[in-house]
Amino acid sequence: LINFTQNIIGNEFCDIPDEHEETNNKCSVQSRYSQNRYILYDVNPPEGFNLRRDVFIRVAVFIKNLIKQEKDFKWQLVLPPWGNLYHWRSKHIGYQTQLPWSLFFDISSLQKYIPVIEIYQFLQEYPSENNETRLDVVYILQNDEEMFRTGKFEDKNEIIECNDKSLQFHKVESEKYIGYFWGYHNITSRVVKCIKFHGMTSDLKQNLKPNVYRSIMFDHMEIALHDFYGTKEYWKARRSMRYNSELYNIANEYRKTFLNSTNEYDNTERPDDWTKEKGIRNAVGGPYLSVHLRRRDFLIGRPSTVPTIQSAASQLKNKLDELQLKSLFVATDATQEEFSELKQYLSNYTVLRFISSDYVLSKFKDGGVAIIDQIISSHARYFIGTYESTYTFRIQEDREIIGFPTRTTFNYLCKGTEKCDSNGQWEIVW
Ligand code: GFB
User: Fold this and answer.
1) Contact 265, 297 (CB under 8 A)
2) What pLDDT band is residue 87 in, cutting at 50, 70 and 90?
3) Which residue has the higher pLDDT, 392 or 31?
4) 382, 406 in Cβ contact below 8 A?
5) Alpha helices per DSSP H over 243-330
6) Is residue 298 within 8 Å of 403, Cβ to Cβ?
7) Taking Cα atoms as reference points, which of 218, 262, 272 lies closest to residue 242?
8) Is 341 a catalytic residue?
9) Per the CB 3.0–4.6 Å rule, which of 16, 138, 232, 325 could disulfide with 217?
10) What is the distance in A from the centroid of ligand 1 to the CA of 294?
């Protein structure tokens, strides 16, 4: 560390680490100039929007602790741009790639938890040559198949040879790898290493080597587990994920117009600053029942838990009657035919789904519309979700933050008439 500090202060030259370099006492070309250290990550391509939001929490908590422990460096998270998601299917609005986090989330709220920057800011501030930004290292996390086969799990963080042809990174010259990099052709990496990994996100600290690397990317970050799942720290990171204020405005306007629901009437008001929130369970919610009715790939992937439309309608009718509510809000990826079928079964009730205007869809894309549905659902008097859907989990978390009684939140549609299993009640910790 002393050598390194001298390198910065004394502006001495130091060697560029070669790709097999494992020692900590050399520093990269860029590291001579500043103490900025950038962490980047990406997630397995097929994973959906809401699992990705969970991966952010794992990384954010990791960086929060890193900042406390490694004070010689200025750590920043580069937010991985959104895009190319399997579920984002609206074709007529153009490509849904390289979308910034600010489209969906309030960056200043995220900033109150850890320092974050968008990728375009990173590309502006990180040294580049001939318009090429070369990261210092990419670590590709890989599951240890053996552990999954034997069921004997133990922590592992082992550099292995990258011999899998399906990997997304390819060496094109000495110390230059190309790869997907969210579709940015001007990003490359000096070094790519594969790691057989099993453990918590914080176990990746040993791979950071801030005396060697200034920009460190982890691919397949979903493999690293939560350090503090469900703890106060977890919930702080989660609470920092406030949505873009325009999405709240659109959802609130819809609630007011169609569901007779406002934060004032429903006791769901929150301070603008999430750090000023208090844990009080006194939310009442708007006078409507809300359901997350997950269809499409869930019909194929989860046939034993996803009910028919007729069965869902019957469960919803029972709950509407029990709660003496007349309105049902449906957050769903169902086809129009399925939604019409549901409405037919519930013809004595007002059954609504959010239909986005062309403006809203072209500006906020499928991800923004999904969030609007989530906001409306999270303000209902009572919520019923889809078993094992991460989309449902995020609504439940929002309701926990808003302060609903848990019995109004942790409910699921059942496949048949038998009582459903519970996914557990992941209650907020303040
Ligand atoms: O978010 P997500 O990972 O949740 O994927 P699951 C579901 C996506 O489908 C959302 C759309 O991000 C939305 O784009 N979607 C689902 C919805 N429900 C709604 C809804 O109510 N309203 C709107 N507007 N959009 C996992 C996937 O999905 O399911 C995995 O992540 C895999 O890749 C697995 O497919 C079977 O956890 O529900």
Assistant:
1) no
2) very high
3) 392
4) no
5) 245-259, 263-266, 297-301, 309-323
6) no
7) 272
8) no
9) 138
10) 7
In angstroms, rounded to a whole number, what is the distance separating the alpha carbons of residues 74 and 1? 15
Selecting among 12, 21, 22, 47, the annotated active-site residue is 47
For residue 301, how far is its CA from the centre of ligand 1 (angstroms)? 12
Task: Give the whole-angstrom CA distance, residue 25 versus residue 211.
Answer: 6
If you write DSSP's letter for every residue of 174-221 in order, what string do you get?
A: TTEEE--GGG-TTEEES-EEEEEEESBGGGGHHHH-TTT-SEEEEESG
Q: Which of 388, 383, 386 is nearest to 398 (CA)?
A: 383
Q: What end-to-end distance do the CA atoms of the chain give, in Å? A: 37
Q: Which atom of ligand 1 is nearest to the CA of 332?
A: 21
CA–chain centroid gap for 402, Å, is 19
Examine the pLDDT at 417 and tell me if it is beyond 90.
no
Report d(CA 187, CA 215) in Å as an integer.
12
Q: How far is the CA of 416 from the centre of ligand 1 (A)?
A: 22
Can you tell me which atom of ligand 1 is nearest the CA of 388? 37
The ligand 1 atom at the shortest distance from the C-alpha of residue 390 is: 37
Residue 29 structure tokens: 């070309």
Tell me what pLDDT residue 382 has: 98
Q: Are 316 and 289 in contact (CB under 8 A)?
A: yes
pLDDT at residue 421 is higher than 80: no
Instruction: Please state the length of the chain.
Output: 430
Question: Residue 419 has which token pair?
Answer: 């009582």
Cβ(391) – ligand 1 distance below 6 Å: yes
Structure tokens of 263?
């934060």
- Cα–Cα distance measured from residue 25 to residue 229, given in angstroms and rounded to the nearest whole number: 34
Residues of the chain above pLDDT 90, percent: 87
pLDDT score of 47 more than 80:
yes
User: What is this structure's pTM?
Assistant: 0.93
Which positions ≥6 away from 85 have C-beta within 8 Å? 48, 49, 96, 366, 367
Three-class secondary structure of residue 173 per DSSP: strand
Task: List pLDDT tens digits, range 171-207.
Answer: 999 999 999 999 999 999 999 999 999 999 999 999 9
